[in-house]
Amino acid sequence: MSKSAGFCQGCLHYVFDYETPKTLVIPNIRLGFAFRFTQFLVVLYVVGYVCVVQKAYQVTDSVISSVTTKVKGFALTNASDMDPRLWDVADYVIPPQGDHSVFVMTNMVVTPEQTQSRCAELPSPSTTCTDDCDCREGYSDPRGSGIQTGLCVNYSLTVQTCEVLSWCPLEIDTELPQAQLAAAENFTMLIKNSITYPMFKFYRRNILPHVNSSYLKRCKFSRATDPDCPIFRLKDIVSEAGEDFQDMAVKGGVLGIIIDWSCDLDWWAGKCYPKYSFRRLDNKHPDNNVAPGYNFRFAKYYKAPDGEETRTLIKAYGIRFDIIVFGTAGKFGIVPTIVNLGAALSFLSLVPVVSDWFMLTCTRKRDLYGKLKATYMAEDTVAEDVSDSSFSFIFKYTCIHSSLMEFSIDYQ
Amino acid sequence: MSKSAGFCQGCLHYVFDYETPKTLVIPNIRLGFAFRFTQFLVVLYVVGYVCVVQKAYQVTDSVISSVTTKVKGFALTNASDMDPRLWDVADYVIPPQGDHSVFVMTNMVVTPEQTQSRCAELPSPSTTCTDDCDCREGYSDPRGSGIQTGLCVNYSLTVQTCEVLSWCPLEIDTELPQAQLAAAENFTMLIKNSITYPMFKFYRRNILPHVNSSYLKRCKFSRATDPDCPIFRLKDIVSEAGEDFQDMAVKGGVLGIIIDWSCDLDWWAGKCYPKYSFRRLDNKHPDNNVAPGYNFRFAKYYKAPDGEETRTLIKAYGIRFDIIVFGTAGKFGIVPTIVNLGAALSFLSLVPVVSDWFMLTCTRKRDLYGKLKATYMAEDTVAEDVSDSSFSFIFKYTCIHSSLMEFSIDYQ
Amino acid sequence: MSKSAGFCQGCLHYVFDYETPKTLVIPNIRLGFAFRFTQFLVVLYVVGYVCVVQKAYQVTDSVISSVTTKVKGFALTNASDMDPRLWDVADYVIPPQGDHSVFVMTNMVVTPEQTQSRCAELPSPSTTCTDDCDCREGYSDPRGSGIQTGLCVNYSLTVQTCEVLSWCPLEIDTELPQAQLAAAENFTMLIKNSITYPMFKFYRRNILPHVNSSYLKRCKFSRATDPDCPIFRLKDIVSEAGEDFQDMAVKGGVLGIIIDWSCDLDWWAGKCYPKYSFRRLDNKHPDNNVAPGYNFRFAKYYKAPDGEETRTLIKAYGIRFDIIVFGTAGKFGIVPTIVNLGAALSFLSLVPVVSDWFMLTCTRKRDLYGKLKATYMAEDTVAEDVSDSSFSFIFKYTCIHSSLMEFSIDYQ
């Protein structure tokens, strides 16, 4: 046989010789029982907690959602300074389109007939004046209402303030004692929500298949009696969030309609329904609140017959409904299953370590077992050299800088 | 040597004695081959499926996206009851700003010259009346159009209905046979989308670097010929979603333009392009649909020379284009690699279990192998006590409540 | 003892006999040290990198966010062709509501007094004409401004163009040298952002608890001095994004205000604050840009006393501020901890493989160790049959198609 053939055969032996650990079998039922019991605990844990409770065998995907909303209802205002006026959806939903965020106006400060002109600034310590010298032409106070013209004019019979160039008359932003569109609590909102889990090609709507048209015409959402109805009475939503509608309507606020589409899409689970919950998203009574509530200003622009532009400025208070759709769907996936099984098997490999410790520590015949299990090599080993030079270096380095030398000597 | 020195030496032995399993080497090529083959299968699985197919070695991040859109085109309406009128982008895109959701009006019911006044309610079983007693002053029917005044007035020559305070004349919401802005099918929409994967500091736009200005001026998206063009003809989008534009334009609908930015950011993959797809998001022909299609009401407010406010109410039907950007980018990460390698290694530790079973069950010399591999402890073991008291308790408890006792006796 | 009892006892032995590997203990301190050192490296890696740096022991959840914004400030325009005009928030924020996307107009092209009528098209190679034959009645050029009437009319004294039916006069979309609302750089924006991590029932606002009302009334965000102030001066935001406000204001753009709520919610970490960053999201100077900057057209509709509708068309340039909230919160979770510990333990099971290799290759007494560790089975093994027939088939198949046969012979 040639030399290379011998080398090949060596390689073959190296690769294909089967090496299996020698074992010692101990027919001790208590030891065996302890071993199996520990194994059982690990398996129980893995199956029970990781698989059943946490569903770690699933791949997950996040929801993609599309929302349309439609508000219905009308309200009559009968303020002392205005004619009776009916408000319908085109009036109080701003902007008009029902997206995932809908604003319903509940209160307002209206300043009609504003034109670009000059008028006396609202009185405040920094705007009151006694003569023109107190006002600077062209100065614009960030807290003011316009650009100062440099004149000091009568605001009322007793107060003089600097004149400003602005949309006049200025808005007088008084405190509002109560909501003008109090009837908004009876408005209803229809929410249509379709969702997709793209990874699983799963589509669903919040109008469930078993819900029919005639039911939808008369139903109103109620957690107890109509949990599947997608039509919400505004007062009910606000109540569910733990707030009082009329309180909230005065200064406005942001209310989250949270739709949870968390689903288990495995066929043995098979159910995937939306769960609605409601939370106020802004802070009601904070110590550190600037601009409490929710409001914004908008204007309707008109043109007078003489071509002059006038506007009606409206500071709209109201409730913004944010429809927040979230959810994660899980479905059996081979990769997480393997990863989690792998982790579990690793724990099984810990069991013999525990059992061996138990055997060599807590059994009566521990010395006998120890002797049978482990063969102790009796000869001198410390004087030996390590042939790997880098390791040898590490050792020498360590020996010089530590007391390992003495250890080694003692170690004999 | 002192006692503590002896203790130390014991500890040293405990910590630094190297304990290695004794093994039995069996030069059986078939056994060796079976062993290596099983190992190979596991490695193949891990490399092939977990790494190549599922890319489990990657860390992933979700996309953050910003969208701007711009619609172009105009349409002429020539309805019998209106003058010919040209509609441009400022007229039919409501609200005007192109965000991730753009509404293009395709049909409408216009009710001009509405004022706050009194008029006869639209006839329906609940609103027809014969005299004033049938109408309740101040009553507001949620399905009606306003607040009843308590009078019964002529709606037409033959029908009397309750009078309401409302925006009059009331909207007559007739069925629309066809879309008035049918030409909207030729409108184009430019979508500019920039995305970020913050974890990887990766930025990209849907206008790809190799696309030049002159191409963008004339291109239209087409899956076959121009898949990178970010300008979409509305009819093409709707067709791609499997719908007919003119059908959808009559009652409106919601159409999802889904941009998938799923990317493999590893340098050896290196490609990251948007993939467009289109889906109708609302339900077309459902049994249980309330308010089918997509529409909303808005108003344009005017002021008459005498200061009275009038409005033109428009019930706008149209297609809302929701641009939904999603995606997950993956890049090699050390943590998932380790977790998944760990799981794989765990499976490798299963291989000897399988091989040993094969060796001790299926080979001819299984008895010989069994004898050489495992040393069976021959002496009496059951009478032995367990020194750990808690374990001892568990055993006693178990023994009393089960038939383990008998097992133990038989076991001899 | 009956036969079944004997079978049972066999089963009991099979299940409850405790099998433990026989080991060889080598009191070689260098070998032991190498073994422990390798173990230490693995543990260090796992603890140091996987746990401390990557926090792989945490379950994570994505943020759910609600944003409201409020812009303050006013600007005076004094263009030569218009009267001085003051712009306040109702004028320049379009649409008026402050959502997660706010548009602040900085520049504009205003075309007042448009009516539905006929006028000469803007001159361009395709619209200039010499007589009516050059114009097609009813033709609508996608790049034009309306529907051609078929007449050729004077655009100016020297140029004739086709007449179109459109909103006339047409918008003349000139290049704008500078922003008209240059003062917008001093506007401030208040951002109120509340977030939720639903999995952890964790709620927080970007107005932090330690911030009081009086501070909020005067503060402005500054990364150095006021990093917690939620009020942003527009110029500062744009500067932080590395842009010049006046440059950006001319043609508009999209600016991302990115709020990062990445949090470690474990009690020993306990801090969860928003981190603001700013980035321009559109492309500033690209080669392949269509419609650079950010603009859109909207109109204000008026009714003339004679009932004719007129509109003021505004091409609004400006900066859209997209408030992008993202973040992932992590909290100690038992499942990822187990998965990652499992992976780590798998690596520990690699250590003996490494140590054995070291022992059998690099130590002086490697032959002695090898002999003591592994028992080599000396007798003939190749001739043996495999009793499992499927395996046997595989082997025969392999033998025929490869040179394994020869290997087997050599192997002796």
From TrEMBL, chains A, B, C:
InterPro entries: P2X2_purnocptor, P2X_extracellular_dom_sf, P2X_purnocptor, P2X_receptor, P2X_RECEPTOR_CS. Gene3D superfamilies: atp-gated p2x4 ion channel, atp-gated p2x4 ion channel domain. This is P2X purinoceptor. One of its GO terms (molecular function) is purinergic nucleotide receptor activity. Glycans are attached at N186. GO terms for biological process: calcium ion transmembrane transport; response to ATP. Receptor for ATP that acts as a ligand-gated ion channel. ATP-gated nonselective transmembrane cation channel permeable to potassium, sodium and calcium. Activation by extracellular ATP induces a variety of cellular responses, such as excitatory postsynaptic responses in sensory neurons, neuromuscular junctions (NMJ) formation, hearing, perception of taste and peristalsis. In the inner ear, regulates sound transduction and auditory neurotransmission, outer hair cell electromotility, inner ear gap junctions, and K(+) recycling. Mediates synaptic transmission between neurons and from neurons to smooth muscle. The gene is p2rx4b. Keywords: ATP-binding, Cell membrane, Disulfide bond, Glycoprotein, Ion channel, Ion transport, Ligand-gated ion channel, Membrane, Nucleotide-binding, Receptor, Transmembrane, Transmembrane helix, Transport. ATP binds at K70, V71, K72, T188, N295, F296, R297, K315. It catalyses: Ca(2+)(in) = Ca(2+)(out). GO terms for cellular component: plasma membrane; postsynapse. It is a multi-pass membrane protein. The keyword Transport applies. Its main location: membrane. Homotrimer and heterotrimer; functional P2XRs are organized as homomeric and heteromeric trimers. Homotrimer. Forms heterotrimer with P2RX1. Forms heterotrimer with P2RX6. Forms heterotrimer with P2RX3. Pfam families: P2X_receptor. Belongs to the P2X receptor family. Disulfide bonds join C119-C168, C129-C152, C135-C162, C219-C229, C263-C272.
